Amino acid sequence: MAQSSFSIDDGKYDDDGGIKRTGTWITGSAHIVTAVIGSGVLSLAWAIAQLGWIAGSIVLILFSLITLLTSFLLADCYRYPDPVHGARNPTYMVMVKNILGGTQYMLCGLAQYTNLIGCTIGYTLTASISMTAIKKSNCFHKYGHEANCNTSNYPFMAIFGVSQILLSQIPDFHELSWLSIVAAVMSFGYASIGIGLSIAKIAEPGHHVKTGLTGLVVGVDETSYEKLWNTFQAIGNIAFAYAFSMVIVEIQDTLKSSPPENQAMKKSNVVGITVTTFFYALCGLLGYEAFGNKAPGNFLTGFGFYEPFWLVDIGNLLIIIHLVGAYQVFAQPVFSLVESWGSKCWPESKLMTKEYYIKIPLVGIYRINIFRVIWRTMYVIFTTVMAMIFPFFNSVVGLLGAISFFPLTVYFPTEMYLTQAKVPKFSPIWIGMKMLSVFCFIVTLVAAVGSVEGIISDLKTYKPFQTN
């Protein structure tokens, strides 16, 4: 009887009665690349400049390996207690609740959703900066590099917000594969443009910039205080550039059950993180070779390059399209949390549960729910307004990232793995996991200090609603 209720009827339902998942390791890889490679890839040259050739390269490789390890641990915890035949954990929070218990579940939720909301606000701001950069690029090309091309990014934040209101009406994460694949292609595009422009600059006749094994020189390029703070911030930037733990379980929940989700997800993790590391290394190291110790914070929006202006414009356009998709990858878990809570609290409410089917020409049947439309629209308006009020919010997002990096990327994955695999206390694996946790906790503290310093500096010069 139970079987006939969701009767594998045309293959629409999964073994547990949920809507059938259709994702593969390819769509999983696309989701990962979309979530991980943000426009921050273009600031890695600055980070390498702070650390130098040796430490910069080591930090890049180290955090790629840490991220790969912890993502493997999370993949095996998707089904519990058995990694292949156990019950599914569809979200990160549910996974923590089932494996570690209620108290840790609350802490996980606080860290995860604070970071997700912070990232969507940050993406709104970052997309508007790239839109502004296109306008400035055309202005510089027309009137010269010394021209006053200042422009406000508030109208562009509003444009980005409107696009997100429309895209947010896509019912759930399972229907976003196409958007993630488009966004992943965009990240390849603008990272490649950054790499190409760097190579062109390196190849220029007479090109000579100052680089160093240890980066910027104390007493020449900066003070010892600035060197310390910038080193902290650079380590944090690279560590958090890899962080995608807050959406990793939700990504795995889009994968079909055959082959086993953990196998497909591990393949996605290897592909996604390898691709990410390759582009990070090229952008960071080639960017440092191109600009040396004077590397700008972002060489597409910070005008490390002025010409060819059309290529700079294309690079920024690709960033914008990528951030449109990345916003949805980070916002969908927030949407899902509130909508699930509303359905449980008011199961009889038509506002919460009733779906209307609208036929859209060339698209097909579209499912619409009144609460979903209202709530998601209000959320996008909130993130847009927050980005407008705090235009230095990237520093705040850096702090949120610092605070959530340790629990989401290292602590919960290692603790859940130790519990699920029943690893004996004080065994070599147990000691290794604990040492990894301590190391990453120190990195989090260091990066948090750097982010707080950045916020204090921003507040000193903050003038609300001023043209950039």
Low-confidence stretches: 1-10
CATH fold node name: Hydantoin permease
Strand content: under 5%
CATH class call: Mainly Alpha
**Gyration radius, in Å:** 23 Å
Domain module tally:
1
The CATH architecture can be named as Orthogonal Bundle
The run of helices and strands is: HHHEEHHHHHHHHHEEHHH
Q: Which homologous superfamily in CATH is the superfamily?
A: Hydantoin permease
Strands, count:
4
Structural class of the helices, strands and pairings? Answer: mainly alpha
Structural shape:
globular
Q: What's the helix count? A: 15
Strand order of the largest sheet: 1-2
Query: Helical proportion?
Result: 55-70%
Major beta-sheet overview = 2 strands, antiparallel
Report the end-to-end length measured between terminal Cα atoms: 64 Å
Report on the structure:
The protein is mainly alpha-helical and 468 residues long. The chain has a single domain (22-460), classed as Hydantoin permease (Orthogonal Bundle), CATH 1.10.4160.10. The protein is 68% helix and 3% strand. The protein contains 15 helices and four strands. The strands form two sheets. It has a two-stranded antiparallel sheet. A hairpin with a 3-residue loop joins strand 3 (356-360) and strand 4. Helix 4 runs antiparallel to helix 5 and helix 14 runs antiparallel to helix 15. The radius of gyration is 23 Å and the shape is globular. The termini are far apart.
Question: Which tags fit this structure?
Answer:
468 residues; mainly alpha; Hydantoin permease; two-stranded antiparallel sheet; two-stranded antiparallel ribbon; 15 helices; 4 strands; globular
